[in-house]
Amino acid sequence: MNCLLVITGAYHTDGGIAAMNRLVIQAIAERGHSLDILSLVEDDYAVDPRYLKPGMKVHSRGFAGNKFLFILAVWHAILGKHYSHICVDHVNLASVLAPLVWIKRCNYVVWLCGIEVFPPRPDLEGRLGLRGARKRLAISKFTQQSVAARFPDLSITACDLALDPVRHADILKLNSSALPASVILEASDQSRIELGDRVILHVGRMVSGERYKGQDSLIRAFPLILEKYPDAQLVLAGQGDDALRLKELARELPALMHAHIFFPGHVSDDLLDRIYRRCYVFAMPSVGEGFGLVYLEAMAREKPCLGGNVDATSCVVHDGVTGLLVDDPRSYEQVAERLIEILADPQRARAMGKAGYELVQSYYLPEHFSSRFWNALESDL
To answer: What is the pTM of this model?
Structure first.
């Protein structure tokens, strides 16, 4: 069986779409199918062999953002070879297949991942890619319902994501409840501080065009939290063109608080793991998640989560069971109140962390995704 992936990127880009593509590649590899991968934004494109089956036939090519060459390559591949399955990771990218659909030379499956299909999107290009698909796979039930409400004539199947089969392979092998010996980071006042027992952790992109991850709410909520728990610490891991603005927002807080706030930027996988295991609670009061893989990363380490109740977070973080949800994530008062609630009850926090770990084990492992993916892909064949 021949499969084609028409994607933005998988191995040299960050974010949920790339993580989803890695899961799809591994799911296809498990069946030993031949695989062609065309990646728009990646240049030196090479598939990580750890995601593949030995002896598997794989051809991959990156186009470094050159959309013209990318489109020509996609058309050439489809016109020159029969594919049993063609998967596209973005509705706007799927629009390049429209001419081939019109002449009945291809059928494709498109993923619905979040902000690219949330209001006011998709745009005209995205709608073309959305409607032309043979099948539409949403990465969460929330994303499925959001798109279905605006396009009731389209069939959409939910296919929840999972932990990465390679990048998260070591998480579940470790004693996730064991704290690392020491984690020292540079605080906002440039002092070197060891992380303590009440660390609130956020991991996410800091991009000016995507200010929905909740960093602003956490920074504004922190004075209220610190008033109640003077040893609390806030770690905001991530990078992007909005990092400077967020750091300035933190510097506007009273100077005594600067030694409690950390912006480590992009961190290595090893350091990120140590920070995850060091934290008391993972908090991302987002308003635009299509799924929220970072919640799984925290839950796999037995950490309770705080999130918003307005996006797909509620599909992953179960309020009162694996964490707490905030009705208005943009309200720093609500964010502070719920975080204080978690900090006030360590026994409950540990119970929620344990429940999250068990949920990951029962539903969010790579083999669970592979089963969901193939069931969705082949349901109408």
So the answer is: 0.93
